[in-house]
Design goal:
Layout (H helix, E strand, L loop, with lengths): L1 H4 L10 H30 L8 H16 L4 E3 L2 E3 L8 H17 L15 H38 L5 E2 L1 H24 L2 H5 L4 H31 L1 H11 L2 H14 L1 H13 L4 E2 L4 E3 L2 E3 L27 H17 L7 H24 L3 E2 L6 E2 L2 H57 L16 H4 L14 H13 L40
Helix pairs in contact: 2-3, 2-4, 2-5, 3-5, 4-6, 5-6, 8-11, 8-12, 8-13, 11-13, 12-13, 12-14, 13-14
Length: 527
Amino acid sequence: MLGKLAGDDDETRRPLPVSGMLAAVFTLGVGLAALTTLTLVGWIAAPRGTLGAGLPGVFRTAAQLWLAAHHAGFAIPGGRVGLLPLGLMILPAVLLYRAGRWMARDADLRLRLPARLPKNSPKEQAGARRRAQLVLVVQAGVSLAAPYALLAGLIALVTSNEITQPFIGEALLSHFVLAFLAGSLATARMIGPWRVMLRLLPERVRALTVGTAVATALLLVAGFVLVLIAFVLNFDQVEELSGVLSPGFVGGVLLALLQLLYLLNAVVWAFSYIAGPGFAIGADTLVAPTGVQLGTVPSLPLLGALPESGPVPAWMMAVVAVPFAAGAVAGVMVARISPSPSYEAAPLWGFLTGVTTGLVAGLLAALSGGPIGGGRLATVGPSPWEVALSVALEAGVAAGISAGVTNLLLLNKKARAPLDKAAAPVRKAGAALAKAASRVGLAESDPRPLPGHWMDATEADTQEIPVIRDDWQDEHASAEAETQAQARPRPPEPAPAARPPRKDIVDESDDRGGHVIYVDPYAWDRD
């Protein structure tokens, strides 16, 4: 449907605000249609009057569910409802993300990137391009979020009645934030892959973002595992509560869907339990590793997985080690992504990662809990500030230590790298000398006779000395005699008699032409 809105002419591109408005309208239309269908099924299966009178009550309930999907609470007689399912937020988030992708393609945001960059160094050009991309991402997020929040305000005004009154301020804020995050993420994803999207952030911010995401994901996984274990151990209580409600087939399916939507809330409560503060199911109640104190709980089968009141085994305190482990992993990630040039800076950045993880954990704790009317159920869920403080201290200390150790190892490795690089030519020259020495026999002995002349020193002890013939001349002895003769005065000697021509080496008397044969007297030991 969104693809048809762009038209067939690819050369015609709408302005970004117009594309954002169309994407917002499409998201609201599809989301309300899906929830209206689900509400209509519940209206058919539920007793008359539960969801209001007739179809107008069904549409009003669907609109209220849509507001609740963005975590916008509403007031009821005697209190307010703030315990909303986090799983329901997945529907508008997915629709907004797809709408943001379409908006980026429809407005052709890739062509809006700056064509002219400052003529400076490549690093400055890359920084200018990154800043321009960030500005474009923010503009796209606002173009989708602003009309989306205004439409949500109109829906909140329309659905207000004497029983339920949505908080318009919460509706505007929650819709704007969710649409801005989804639209910005979708636009950044259109620029490039996930790694390219992360590179839009500065190095330190990117390191903190990745470290916080890793630590939070590990806490959520640990909470999910704890929920599964509790569900399996207390399956009899869950089954008993389901039998008491006896919702029927259609009601059972809707009840199972409702519990599935509240599963993410239970996961956040579980990692709040792991962090130490725990959570409450009503006033004066507590579920924590130090002990469990419960009263009458709502008849929701999912709550049947809660432990019984009383002391908790001592070994359950071991779950507190999970935030330390998550912080240690996050510290390693931070140090590897952005190493610190000084030894004392890395632990500070690691601790800061723990602090940001604590802030995220506190935000999730605040979203997962809330009141259910007034009275005793006005306090349900974990305490946001207690969870934030506990996770910040536990994950921060572990992240600071692991980041410091990892950064120290990285700095030592970098310090050894130049020495290894400088020693490489020396090692190479040594290897060449060893290779040359092995070739001439200095490195290791070779039993085979070496090639060469018989007067070589290496062969003097292994080969027989040949017999010197009388007609051979000792060049060294003649040179020594000549030197000594020149040193002492002597009378002039008569001219030497002409030496007869030798015929054993060169036939000097051969003047008939032809070939002259040379005989090498030193070739006696050759083949």
